[in-house]
Amino acid sequence: MSDSFQSIPGTFDILPHTQSTSADTVASTHAWQYVEETIRRVMHRHGVHEIRTPILEPTALIARGIGQLTDIVSKEMFAFERGSTQYVLRPEVTAPVMRAYLQHHLAQLGGVQRLYYIGPCFRAERPQKGRYRQFHQFGTEYIGADDARADAETILLAVDIYRELGLTDFTVRLNSLGTAASRTAYRTALQAYLRPLAGQLSETSRERLESNPLRILDTKSEAERGLLEGAPIMLDFIDEESAGHYGDVKKHLTAAGLAFEEDPFLVRGLDYYTRTAFEIDSPVLGAQTTLAGGGRYDLLAGEIGSKQDVPAVGFAAGMERLFLALESAGIELPKAGVPDVFVVTLGERAGDYAFPLMRAWRRAGLSTVYDLKGRSMKAQMREANRQEARCVVILGDAELDAGTAQLKHMDTGEQQSVALDDLTGILKTAYVPTPE
Ligand code: ATP
Ligand code: MG
């Protein structure tokens, strides 16, 4: 082991090539860019615009916005103080986006704001496959929308991104959490049901029984799942309007041909959700099965200081879990793009001659590379092959004296001698992509 620095456990570098260890795989920057471009393309099709908010936010925004009793606030926040300001590295992006919406009075623009983000989030969790301390989320927020079509569209948008990437093996689970009032009534009923069973609950669940009993529904323990079999069902407690809204969401999803499962025990980790809640799971993910989660959060704006009600719905999805699912599904992601031209030069004179020429080629749109280490012709050719260059230009003293260069087209293997004056034109014709 060397003394040099290592990245912090639970964080990782993304390199130009895929890194595979026995424990984990990190996709290449090219694969990340491809996935990000796919996300942006699907967002664009839905008329959703990108928003970028700071990594640093005031701690109170997160603590108030997502609820004091959530795991994130109680134990996963990277928060610190400097002077009299409390900072947090954002653990999620919904509260920041709502903050920005309120701060910039985006409601005044009229209509619904359809926003999306892609970027890093931070949570002090125990690092493991699919669970990191710095990870990346993408997601949408439709702010100002109470129409059930917004809920359905949010789910379908996430699904479209997965499908566009070639993923087909996932399930959508759906529930309705009603309003704050129906949740309080349900909470009381659930506590009444679970209190006599407290002895059989895990320590965490026993703590949650008084603080946040809905989270017990989320349990992964088989024994606890068994205990929950006779538990009251949230849907029996929701108000008529929420029930109507839920029915409409299901109607739109069905009209769109999306298969989904109703899961009466689906709750979301955060306190601000009302009505629609959903998760998208991938069976290939193993322990960390959730690709994305979301729902309606009509209470968030009020929670962080808005005087007006701001209905909103959105989803958040993990990038790393998406890469895991793509890997398990055997979906190949693009590698680095290949250079158009690899220039092999022999000697200083040829190197100097080629330098400004290559600049002109690059400005003309040709991806042009060369060896910076003054290696042998053989080594340069090997490098051109390794990089899968589309053609190789060979320049040495003899060629310069003759006013020519050797041009080798790598797809056919054909090699020709070309006058230097014609070279740029030939390369442009052969290798600059013509606009469609
Ligand atoms: P989990 O139940 O897996 O802890 P969560 O309910 O905390 O998830 P959300 O807050 O809903 O997750 O975040 C949305 C998505 O972000 C998750 O579905 C998951 O794909 C991803 N995600 C959450 N936490 C992490 C993490 N620590 N590392 C990697 N991805 C994460
Ligand atoms: Mg979590």
What can you see in these coordinates?
By secondary structure, the chain is of the alpha+beta class. An 8-stranded mixed β-sheet has the order 3-7-8-13-12-11-9-10, with helices on both faces. The protein has a 5-stranded mixed β-sheet with strand order 15-14-16-17-18, sandwiched between helices. Strands 4-6-5 form a 3-stranded antiparallel β-sheet. The protein has 2 domains: 19-178 and 265-328, Bira Bifunctional Protein, Domain 2 (BirA Bifunctional Protein, domain 2); 341-431, Anticodon-binding domain (Rossmann fold). Helix content is 37%, strand content 21%. The chain starts with 18 loop residues before the first strand and ends in a 5-residue tail after the last helix. α1 packs antiparallel against α5 (148-164) and α5 (148-164) packs parallel to α9 (240-255). A hairpin with a 2-residue loop joins β5 (79-82) and β6 (85-89). It is built from 15 helices and 18 strands.
